[in-house]
Amino acid sequence: MKTKKIGMFALALLLSVATFSQKSELKAADKAVKKGDFSTATTILNGAEGLIANAEAKYQAKYYYLKGMALYANGTKPANINDAAAAFNQLIAIEKKSGNNTYSNEASTTLKSIIDKADADALAAYQSASATQDDAGYIKAAKNYERVFLLSPADTAYLNNSAMLLAVGKAYEKSNEQYQQLLDMGYTGIATTYQATSTVNGEPIAYNSQKEMNQQVKLGIAKDPKTDVSKSKVNGIIKAIATNYGRLENNEKALEFIEKARIASPNDYDLVIEEANVYYRMGNDAMFKEKLEEAIKLNPTDPNLYFNVGVMNMNLGDNEAAAISFKKAIELKPDFGDAYNNLGAMALDKAKPVQEELDANAMNFKKYDQIKAKKLIPIYREALTYYEKAHELIPDDEALKNLVNSLYENLDMDKKIE
Questions:
Q1: Are residues 305 and 286 in the same domain?
Q2: Which of 308, 379, 309 is nearest to 347 (CA)?
Q3: Is 175 helix (H, G, I), strand (E, B) or coil?
Q4: How far apart are CA 328 and CA 321, in angstroms?
Q5: In this structure, is residue 174 part of a structural domain?
Q6: How many domains does the chain have?
Q7: b/e sequence 376-402, b meaning 16+ C-beta within 10 Å
Q8: pLDDT averaged over the chain?
């Protein structure tokens, strides 16, 4: 029994010594911070770090408060900002758990000024990048938004901003890393906003909570309360990951994430187009055409879809179906020069078997002239109709101009485009 009492006494003695040391170190650091001697405070706190892990919550809170203040150094040490913010966040977490707020209010105010400055820097970087449309500028802005997130991990929207800007800056792999991080964190992007109208000036008022809004409505300060809940951004993130993989030409991964996204949004037009593009890059013309036709059902007024289906039908040798698609594209977009050009090419393609027939009758002048007049000339005239319109719409295309002049010559027309 005596041995146990001595052991307990010894343990208590050790604890009291450690507590005394903690108090002493924290007191010395506190004095240094108040004097503005932040370097000394940092040195003292670094030395006391090993004593804090098992300390009482109130001493841990004070330690991280002083550490944050010492590193922040009234904003004079930008290089320490991230570490200062991490210390403040640790302090706030400790006091939240313990139900105390001795230092949290002051730390939150300082932390907010740090975050606001970082947020302003991020916005400035984004505006600069938008003005120059520079990839490097977008990546710089993304890094700034990532920094805001690191300063305030609860504000996951900043990491989402970073991921989006990385994609704009063509840093697709890093963008996907951040998007995946958001998914792993359970990020949804769902936000609830509370707004009412001031009864004094009619201006909208935003509130932090429904309770606050309802109180002001009850008091007659505001009216027409509204609560809005935004939609989840999860499927948008999955779409963005798929698009990034597409830009990286990782077609298998792109299709994997497109499939995931389409489970939630089976009729998402952008997803269908992205899927079509993946199959195009893979050289799968049949699937590319199938997805374009699916896209047409979702968006039947896009002339580019009909044009691309027409091109696919041309490649697959179905000129009749291709012509229907090109004419539909022109119906929706009368100045679609490339569609007229392809119609001309398909019309001229009909001349190949006729030319073979002419070659076979090269020495039979009468029959040769009959075949030419009856079969070849109508083909040339049909092709010329389309090519002339294509040239009118695409006047700078030299190959097209030469083709029109060649048809004029073959049709014995006294015309020439200079």
A1: no
A2: 379
A3: helix
A4: 11
A5: yes
A6: 4
A7: beebbebbbebbbbbbebeeebeebbe
A8: 87
CATH number, domain containing residue 248: 1.25.40.10
pLDDT digits (tens, 9 = 90+) for 83-96: 888 888 888 888 88
In this prediction, residue 107 has a pLDDT band, given cuts at 50, 70 and 90, of: confident
Do 283 and 223 sit in the same domain of this protein?
A: no
| CB neighbour list of residue 374: distance below 8 Å, 6 or more residues apart | none
Q: Is 194 helix (H, G, I), strand (E, B) or coil?
A: strand
φ, ψ of residue 193 to 5 degrees: the values are: -120, 145
Structure tokens that stand for 140 in this block = 């710089």
Average pLDDT value for residue range 211-219: 91
Whether residue 359 is predicted with pLDDT greater than 90 in this model: the reply is: no
The H-or-E segment that residue 220 falls in is none
Would residue 16 count as lying in a domain? Answer: no
Could you tell me the two tokens for 329? 């594209």
SS (H, E, C) 252-320: HHHHHHHHHHHHHCCCCHHHHHHHHHHHHHCCCHHHHHHHHHHHHHHCCCCHHHHHHHHHHHHHCCCHH
Q: Do 173 and 150 meet the contact criterion of CB atoms below 8 Å apart?
A: no
Q: Whole-prediction pTM value?
A: 0.69
Residue range 69-78: mean pLDDT, rounded: 82
Decide if 209 is inside a domain.
yes
Q: Is 49 inside any structural domain?
A: no
176 and 267 together in one domain = no
d(CA 96, CA 64): 14
User: Tokens 């509130």 belong to which residue?
Assistant: 207
Are 310 and 322 in contact by the 8 Å Cβ rule? The answer is yes
21 falls in which pLDDT band (50, 70, 90)?
Answer: low
Higher pLDDT, residue 50 or 293: 293
Burial class (CB in 10 A: 0-12, 13-18, 19+), 82: middle
Both structure tokens of 53: 């892990």
Non-local CB neighbours of 101 within 8 Å, separated by 6+ positions:
95
102-115 b/e with 16+ CB inside 10 Å = b? ebbeebeebbeebb
Direct distance between the N- and C-terminal alpha carbons of the chain, in angstroms, rounded to an integer: 116
- Check whether residue 308 and residue 356 sit in a common domain: yes
My answer on whether 243 and 265 are in the same domain is yes
Euclidean distance between CA atoms 42 and 64, whole angstroms: 11
- Select the more confidently predicted residue: 255 or 153: 255
255 and 166 in one domain? no
Nearest to 85 by CA among 129, 151, 144: 151
Range of the domain at 272: 234-299
**Average pLDDT rounded to a whole number, residues 166-195:** 94
SS3 171: coil
